[in-house]
Structure prediction request, 617 residues.
Amino acid sequence: MEQLLQQIVNGISLGSIYALIALGYTMVYGIIKLINFAHCDVYMIGAYVGYVCMAKLGLGFFPSLLASMLVCTLLGVVIEKIAYKPLRNATRITALITAIGVSLFLEYTTMFFAGADVRTYPPMTGFMAKTFKMGDVVISAQQILIAVITVILMVLLQLIVKKTRIGKAMRAVSLDKDAAELMGIDVDSTISFTFALGSALAGAAGILVGVYYNSINPLMGVLPGLKAFVAAVFGGIGIIPGAMLGGYLIGIIEVFVAGFGYSMYRDAVVFAILILILILRPAGLLGKNTGEKV
Amino acid sequence: MKGKLSAQFIRRLVLIVLTYGVVQLLISVNIINDYLQATLTTICINIILAVSLNLITGFTGQFSLGHAGFMSIGAYTCALIILKNPTIPHFLLGTLLGALLAALVGFLVGLPTLRLRGDYLAIATLGMAEIIRILFINMDNITNGPRGLSGIPRFVNWTWLFIFTVGTVLLIRNFLNSSHGRACIAIREDEIAAETMGINTTWYKVLAFVIGAFCAGIAGALYASYFYFIKPDIFGFLKSVDILVMVVLGGMGSISGSILAAILLAVISTLLQSFSEIRMILYALILIVIMIFRPQGLLGSKEISLSMFSRLGKFFAFEKEAK
Prediction:
C-alpha cells in the first residue's frame, strides 16, 4: 500500500511536468493545427536559463523561475514570427518539417554554446532540501513545489482562457479562424499570444525538471516532448483540461511500469498507449467524436 | 508507337548499364577509393529509403515518421542471419527475409493506423518506430541490446548496391505508372473523392505502406552488411527525419527529386564532415530556409527525364541562333 502511494506521489511529480509541456502542444495544435516539435526544446532552453540563473548568477528559485518563463515566452514568440508565420497557408507537412528544423536548430545551437555534456543544478538548500515522511511515504519539498506550482499555473491558464478577452479570442480562433477574423479578431496576435502562453509553461517545466532531476543536457527535451505530445493526444488534442489529465495519467503510468521492474520498457509502454488510443478513440479521453465533413 | 517505346527502353537500358560500368571502372582503378565508396553506399541506401518513403508520403499522401523502424527490422534480420552463415546466398536470403518482415510489421501497423489522418498517422508511426527501437534494445540475448551487433560480414559491393537500388526505383516507378499507382495518387489528391470513384482507399494506403516498408527493409539489410556494425540508436527518430527531409527536399511526388536530394544530402554531409560541430546547425537552417522559400521542394512533383534534356538542348540551340 505504501509502495502504491509512493508511486502515485512520484507519478504526480513526473505527470505535472508532462502536463505543463502538453498544455503548450495542445494549445498550439488547437489553434494552428501544427505539432510544434520545437516546443520540447523551448522546455530545454527553460532548463538552461534556470541553470544559468541559479548556478552562475546565484539567484533564488523563484526569480529564476520567472526569468526562464520570460525568456521562453520571448523565444516562443520569436520562433512563431520567424519560422511559422510565413507558412500560415502552406501545407501541414511543410510546417511540420519546419518545426523539426527549428527543433534541431535549438538543440544543436545549445550544444554548440553550452557543450553536449550533462550539467548539474546547484544543490538545493533550506526548505527545498527537506523531505517529509507520512508513514512510509516519502515526499520531498521539491515534489510539493512541482505539484503546487503546476496547479497554480494551470489555474492561471484556465482564468486567462476562460475569463479574459484574449482568452475568448483564442477560443474563437481555434474554433474557426476565418470566422474569427471576420468578427474583427486579430488572428496573428492571438496566435502569438498562444505561443507565448505555451512557451512560458514549458519554461516553468524546464526549470522544475532541473531542480527535481538535477541534471540537464541539450537533448533532454526530445523524449519528454514526445511523451507530452502523447499526453496531449491521450487527453484529447486541443482540449486544455485533456492535456492536464493526459499528463498526469502518462506520468503515473510510466512510474508504475518502472516500479514493477520494467523500467527499460516504460517508453515503449507510453507509445503503445498512444497507438491504442489512436486506434480506439482518436479524439482522446475528453474529446468529442466529430463526423467527417465533405 | 511500339517502336518508339522500345527505342526509349533501349536508351534507358544503355544509360543504366553505362552508369554501372563507369562506376565499376572507377572503383577498379581506385579513383573511387574506400572513403568515396562509403559515400556511394550511403547514397544508394538513401535513394532506396527516400524513394520508398516518397511512395508513402509523396504519392499516397500518408505521412510517416517511422521509416527508420522498418529499416532497423531489415538490418537486424539480415545481420543475424549472415552472422550465423556468412555466405552470399544467406545474405540474399537475409535481405529478402528482412524486407518481408518489415513489410509484415508495416501491414500489422498500417492496417489499423492508416485510418487516421495526417498528423495522427505521423505520430502513430513515430511511436511504432520508437517501440521497435526499444524492443531491439531490450532483446539482449538476440540483439546484444544497446551495444549492437558488430563484425557483420560485408557482402555488399557496388554490383549488389546497384541491383537493389535500380530494382527498387524501377519497382516503385512501375507501380506508380500502373492503375494501382494512379489510385494511390488519387487518394493523395482527395481521399473522399477517390473513395466515391470506387477506389478501396484503405487497401491502397496499406499497399503503399507495405511496399514502402519492404524497400526500407532492403535498405536496412544493405546498411548492415556494408558498415559492419549496427545498433538500435542508429535507427532513431533522427534517422526517420533524415529520410523525410530527403523526400521533402527533393519534392513530394517526384522520384528523381528524391534521388537528387539523396545524392545532394550525402555530398553536403561529406563536405561538412570537417565542421562537425556546426554541421547540424547548418542542416537545420537549410531545412527551415528551404521550407519557407521553396516549400514544394527542389523539383516539386516534376521528374527529370531524358526528353527534358533534349528540350533543354533545343532551347539553348535556339538561343544561339537568335544571337
In short: Residues 130 and 141 of chain A are 5 Å apart (CA to CA). Strands of chain A lie at 119-120, 131-134, 137-140, 215-216.
